[in-house]
Amino acid sequence: MASIILPSAPSESRPGRFGIYGGRYVPETLMAALLELEHEYEIAKSDAAFQAELAGLLKDYAGRPTPLYFAKRLSEELGGAKIYLKREDLLHTGAHKINNALGQGLLAQRMGKRRIIAETGAGQHGVATATVCALLGLECVIYMGDVDMARQELNVLRMRLLGAEVRGVSSGSKTLKDAISEAMRDWVTNVRTTYYILGSALGAHPYPTMVRDFQRCISREMKEQILEKEGRLPTAVIACVGGGSNAIGAFYEFIPDRKVRLIGVEAGGRGTALGEHAARFAGGVPGVLQGTFSYVLQDENGQIAGTHSVSAGLDYASIGPEHAALHDSGRAEYTSQDDASALNAVVKLARTEGILPAIESAHAVAEALKVAPTMTPRELLVVNLSGRGDKDMGILARELHLQGA
Amino acid sequence: MPIHFEHKPGLVVYVTAGDPSLEATRDIALAAIDAGADVIELGVPFSDPLADGPVIQRASERALARGTKLSDVLTIARDIRAAKPAAGLIIFTYLNPILRYGLARFADDAKAAGSDGVLVTDMIVEEAGEYLKEMDRVGLAPVFLAAPTSPDERLAAIASRSKGFIYAISRTGITGKQTSMTSDAAALVERIRASFAPGAERLPVAVGFGISNADHVAQVAEFADAAVIGSAIVDLIERSTAETAAAEVARFIKGLRLQEAATAR
User: Fold this and answer.
1) ipTM of the shown complex
2) Biggest distance spanned by C-alpha atoms of chain A
3) pLDDT digits (tens, 9 = 90+) for A91-103
């Protein structure tokens, strides 16, 4: 492999850089909009009225704080660590995505942008965005790969019911990556009137930072709740990582607590060959995709590789730049769980706790199933249950042969 | 020879390398130069061309399906340079393929192949430190994009870091057709020209995105130094065969010139 030379000197102090990762690699046409967004976000961040409005909506509309639930039967059955589930699946619209969609929706409103676009993989960010647009009276266009529209049809119908226009994307792999490219093409065309609500901790600065800020409420609550219930910090926090928004939200407040292990779980898909998985830290090398410098699954010519995961939300060739930095520094560990393990974890959690997780979140559950038995009952595992599995019933029915049994 | 525009307005012709084949791309570029193109932009196909419309996306897919690599693009750059010593030659690419190739190795090889400059679609001036160092080390011209949305202070930064020419994007949007030139383009060119520092070289300004016929070229001639023709050429290549594409492209480019002669009368 040819050596990678950084396009610019890394600097911790530059905004939008996480170690050497992040930055802004976009067509010039978008730069004015990104700079405006960065500026407006900085003002909003320190504006008490903005923060109060967001906090009010998160509480009364979305349902924060979400519970930290002790999974007693699961813990006992595994015979190791005590497992707690952070119940982001109980939020309005069924996943953590609403945290960010509300934040950015309010920001768009504040900036006077009446037209909203977004990409979606599993459809949870699309549904959250369509919901916020309905709530705020904004026009909404969602880009979604054709493959994802077929496998997450319920969410497509939900978005349409909410008044959003869902535009199928038939280029490339017809999944999340291509939906992001298409959303960026729309944005570059309509940049003067349109706000792009990016749903993951990806893309050009300020998105990775802004999305993380809107998701860090997850770890803030986790920390308070585990201290209240157990009087000590957890041994480890586990979260699935697609682009990485739920994981960075679940990790962020624990980063200074060096003893807390942070474990990100990528999609192992159905094999270790390039194209069969979405484990960026297992098969990727640093590069630039869709505006940011991070680990990217790519071939030896720098062409972006295809990916596979049973979960649309983890099926992406790159990963948020802050995760790349946490990976390289060793502060967070990244592992993967394959399709079969994730499906097994869905069944396990459903039948021991009566909780049906999204297949994305089930990758984190699968990791807990693996590590909990190796730990002592004194140790505490917190699993971020980022979303619920209703959207996945079609896939689950097929994969688990639920029909006509 | 540094990039220069023989004609008024100059013509910059973009082709996606490897579509329909590397040999055809070479022949198309040579025919385009014979027909009056001042500068050839050799496009490196990329899997995720987010600044491009459907025409160039499809061309990239076809080129990649044939296995076109960055090293192949440099090989035909060398062939074009050998046949046409005076023509301008730019490598037009997204960032990731050159990062994977190695930025220093790319700079060396692009220079050795005889190209005059490089345009990286997703490289903005703020991130360009290492890239500019490499371009400067080997003597390649970094060509940057300027957009109608770029405020004056960004245009000044772009103007001060560019060499060869400045590529002014005619409108917000992706590459591909439009029906008429917007007033954005003329205003942008005027702002770019006002942004050169006193005493600095006043680089030519080429206008691109959506320029597809002789009328457009004639309009651009009124306010800019050159017109960039991209998707219209790639579309023509798509509709031609590998055997006829070079002749079709030459005929098309001569047609752009005829209109120019008529309007200049």
Assistant:
1) 0.95
2) 60
3) 999 999 999 999 9
